[in-house]
Amino acid sequence: MPTFDDESTMAERHERPVCRSLRTKALHVYGPDTPDAYATSRSSHYHCLRTQFVTGPDQAPCVPEQCQPGRSCFEAR
Fold it and tell me: For 9-22, what is each residue's pLDDT tens digit?
């Protein structure tokens, strides 16, 4: 089981808001503190809660680095 107490991960979480519609299985398994919600993990599959697909309403990929403020469909968490 991964540990989520790494200080760099904690700092990144506070500096990087991600869209509330971004989903990954890790959110259900490990909860909202999973680093997979803030930085793309090769072990996670991402999708948009609004489209239920791997792309958002703007047709761009759903990954933490792209589901950021400035994107037309972004909603703060």
Answer: 444 555 678 899 99
